[in-house]
Ecp2 effector protein domain-containing protein (Podospora aff. communis PSN243), 158 residues
Amino acid sequence: MKLSVLVVSLAATLATAMPAALSDPSNNATELVPRQNEIFYEWVCNKFNGGGGQEALRRSKAYFDHRFGTNVLTAASKQCYGVGNDCHGYYLLVCNHSGITRSELPGMRDEIANRAVNDDWGCVTTTIRDSGYMRYYWGKSGTLNSLWDMPNKDWRNC
């Protein structure tokens, strides 16, 4: 008898709690669904060895912040912000690949600077939280290719 009361009570709780949690727009979808593609949160690189490692990436981020500031950037559709050439031999880009104006997520540049790049370069990363439209590119100066073929560019030297 006690077990049936527990089951009925649990069923009633789930019936009332679940739909509210799933239909509440204040709930963030990332809290309801676990990350399903971990690689989407890491740097993906196509050049290996000789990349300068984590310290080079952090220096690139520091140069970027020096030239553009530390506030969240808002980019028009197909717009990139970048630093490079004389930035200790590396570039760092923030690009909006969507068809609308978008802003970086707060703290995202700090987050990407702490993601492991090992000794690789020619790298890209993004986040599921913004649907992957804001992408970050990092690599050796002079190796930037079609990634930089965006119509709107704001390129600054260090």
Observations:
- DSSP finds four helices and eight strands in the chain.
- The first helix runs from residue 2 to 23.
- The two ends are 75 Å apart (CA to CA).
